[in-house]
Amino acid sequence: MKPAHSVNALKSWVELQGLSTREMPHLRDLLQDKSRCEALHYKALGLELDFTCQRVDSHVLAALQRLAQESNLKDQIQRFFQGQEVNTSEQRAALHPALRNLDEHKVAWSKSITQEVHLELERFCSFAEQIRAQKHQGYSGEAFTDVVNLGIGGSDLGPRMCVQALSNLEAWEKPSKSAALPRVHFVSNVDAWALYKVLSDLDPRTTLFIVQSKTFLTQETLLLAASAKQWLTQNGCPLDKTSQHLVAVTANTALALQSGYKSEQTFKFWDWVGGRYSVWSAIGLPVAIAIGEKKFKELLEGAQAMDEHFHQTPWDRNLPVLLALFGIWNNNFLKAYTHHIAPYSYLLSHFTPYLQQLEMESNGKGVDLQTHPMQVHTSPIVWGGLGIDGQHAYFQLLHQGSHLVPVDFIGLKSDTCPADKAQEHHQCLVLNMKAQAKALAQGRNLQETKKELKETGLSDEQIALLAGHRTFRGNSPSTSIWLDEMSPKTLGALMALYEHKVFTQAAIWSINPFDQWGVELGKKIAQQLKNN
Ligand code: F6P
Q1: Which atom of ligand 1 lies at the shortest distance from residue 157's CA?
Q2: Residue of the nearest CA to atom 6 in ligand 1?
Q3: Cα 14 from chain centroid?
Q4: Is the distance from CB of 469 to CB of 450 less than 8 angstroms?
Q5: Which domains, ranges and CATH numbers included, belong to the chain?
Q6: Active-site residue 485, yes or no?
Q7: Cβ within 8 Å of residue 436, ≥6 positions away
């Protein structure tokens, strides 16, 4: 195991502390500097990252780069991509990049891993194609019209987010004109209403359940699967035919087979894939059913390209590293303890919950790799939702509240929605996203506010009463991330961007982003309460 470093003892950390207590120019002034703005724009892999609205100058940028170096980031990335035991508390590698790099000649991990991954990928993709082509039937001999994903956490959030994000592909991905593609639904919540609401619209003869669970022990998922099975039998499916309607995806295949799942409908992944990093494995089956094998593989390609970028690119142009460093600057030095995610595309409705698990389950840690209590804050509280809706709900707090809240705005440069006036709608989103980033950065000071109020014809008395309420402090940092378009490749790149951002922050804080012991105690107490 690599010795952990004490991040707050690093020279660059101390330097950054000094820089954060300086009088810094306001963002509105920093934004006047054209060469700074040009230097803080980056493009790669169908993404554009605009960091101009981060509260950084050349001194902060240089010190952040030194922080990456002093944290031995290079070495830590190397160890990760070599498949070394980076998940120290569970004594294993975290090799999700192996799920999307199938070139045996280019990988540092064992070739047998690549071969096994490849085999399973082909198995579940070909199953997905058969479902799409209506070649699999339920007990009545009819093809499946509906697929219901039963799973929670990483067995739900990644696939649910991808299916929604890539639903723009549906129109042109039908296997044949006459075939209707199966609809994909998700149930994660053990509340009976969640399952009931979905099933009440479905026909048991044509419904396929995918039971997704890495451990195959998660109480909520097993209960949902049992109720789904009961729904099948109570609605006409003979008991011995239920397995036709059930698929298992798990790292615990022995238990799935023992529980009656057919081996040809049981797909595996491996203990070195964390739940929140698992959508690239057979956990992606609902995505492959929704968008087809070809597009699913493009999603992997997009992520793989980001792996390569992360692995090879110098820190000052490395997108995940930059995103991570600005996050650390905001969290640990500007004392912004929450981080807001605001997608400006309806297709990304489920992106924030996906990211919440990725960031907070990974980096919400209180001890370092040597189990020393952390001396500095780790993951911020990640929150958010669709930006355009947020503007009319909680953005008030972002603009004038007492907390400093950095924002990641995520938008599409172009959109292909076939609806009438879709371009006008898209333009509305784009302009609003740009306007919010600008308003948060620039603000409007008292003097400007008074001037504007004067121009509306208000009296001095009225202005004195109102100006304070209508002033915006500005200086709130944000990053704007633009996707050229919503495609499997750009989505894959975006997801891997955040995965590696999380890795980089963990490497700097010297924590383990791949375990999640914090979720265990509550589960254990629930079990004890059940047994009592
Ligand atoms: O309780 C948290 C957690 O273990 C997550 O890490 C995981 O993604 C989720 O539960 C579901 O676990 P499983 O896939 O084993 O059912």
Answers
A1: 8
A2: 275
A3: 31
A4: no
A5: 18-84+313-442+477-519 (3.40.50.10490), 97-297 (3.40.50.10490), 444-475 (no CATH)
A6: no
A7: 342, 387, 391, 395, 407, 409, 478
Q: Could you tell me if residue 474 is left (phi over 0), alpha (psi between -120 and 50 degrees) or otherwise beta?
A: left
Distance from first CA to last CA of the chain, Å, rounded?
41
In the predicted structure, residue 338 carries a pLDDT above the cut 80: yes
Cβ-Cβ contacts under 8 Å for 207 (sequence gap 6 or more): 138, 144, 145, 146, 147, 148, 199, 232, 245
Among 267, 354, 519, say which to mutate for ligand 1: greatest number of ligand atoms within 8 Å of CB.
519
The residue assigned the tokens 């790669």 is: 44
Whether ligand 1 lies within 6 angstroms of the CB of 479 is answered as no
Spacing, Cα 428 to ligand 1 middle (Å): 38
Per-residue pLDDT reduced to its tens digit, 128-186: 999 999 999 999 999 999 999 999 999 999 999 999 999 998 754 555 555 689 999 99
Half-sphere exposure of 517 (CA within 13 A, CB side): 10
Nearest residue (CA) to ligand 1, atom 2: 519
Question: pTM for the complete prediction?
Answer: 0.97
Q: How many C-beta neighbours within 10 Å does residue 337 have? A: 15
pLDDT in tens, 359-373: 999 999 999 999 999
C-beta 214 within 6 A of ligand 1: yes
Q: Measured between alpha carbons, how far is 440 from 436 in angstroms, rounded to an integer? A: 6
Residues 6+ apart with CB under 8 A from 85: 1, 91, 92, 93
3 state DSSP class of 373? strand
Place of tokens 């809240």: 405
Phi-psi bin for 85: left (phi > 0), alpha (psi -120 to 50), beta? beta
Give the position of tokens 């920093």: 30
Radius of gyration, CA atoms only, the chain: 25
**Alpha-carbon dihedral sign for residues 426, 431, 432, 433:** positive
**Tokens 């070599």, residue?**
82
The CA distance from 28 to 49, in Å, is 19
